[in-house]
Amino acid sequence: MKSIIKITGLLFITSMFANNAAALGIEEKTGNVWSFQFGYGLMNGLGGKHSNSSRAYTPESAASRAPTPESGGFNFQFKNAYEIFFTQMHGLRLSTDIQYGSSKAPVDLQTMGFVGNTNIYSKVARLLDLSINLDYRIDFFHRGKWDIGAFAGGGVGYAIQTDKVYVNAGGKDVPAGETSPTYAGGGWNLEGGLIATYSNLIQFELNAIYKRRDLARNLYDIARVGNIAFNNLAFNLGIGFKF
After folding, report:
1. CA neighbor of 109 nearest in space, from 41, 59, 45
2. Which pTM was predicted?
């Protein structure tokens, strides 16, 4: 008898919440968003200290082992986010995204002991990153079919970075012939931005995402001591559809 009363009470509370949620429009606002985002990212590799090994390196080999210079480039990402609203205004968002970005910057070999080398080297860094984030969601403006809001939160992720060194020959960059180093490792994210949803179907997003990764080199390299602390700050504009 007590079990029946408990179950009946639970069903009653659930029914009341469902009715109120429908009346407030919360059920309509909760949903899954698939989006494509495109933007500009700033990359910077920190650390990567070199040992005092007596091993002789060519300039190309040294350039490939240098930390990724501070540089920028275009990036894009696919995002899947599930939004759940507890009131008409407040909610949470759980999202996953996969990002690809690349950047190119010169490498200064003068600071690495190659004072007499006059060749101009550059490094192209390519980054593939997978992230999971939990954000606080708020919609603070409603007019007609538009909901305008914001989000802020963070999470964790894992990245794979591949570097390729080029040397300027006759005014044209050509591959330096060095094997492309590959790095991989995890870290944490911070993100925030603005969201505009039309008719609870089309969603526009403007965001800033900072990712910190601790990358370890996969290839054998006795010249590098410790991992690389890699920073990636990206600004994106995206469009998605809510189901």
Report:
1. 59
2. 0.74
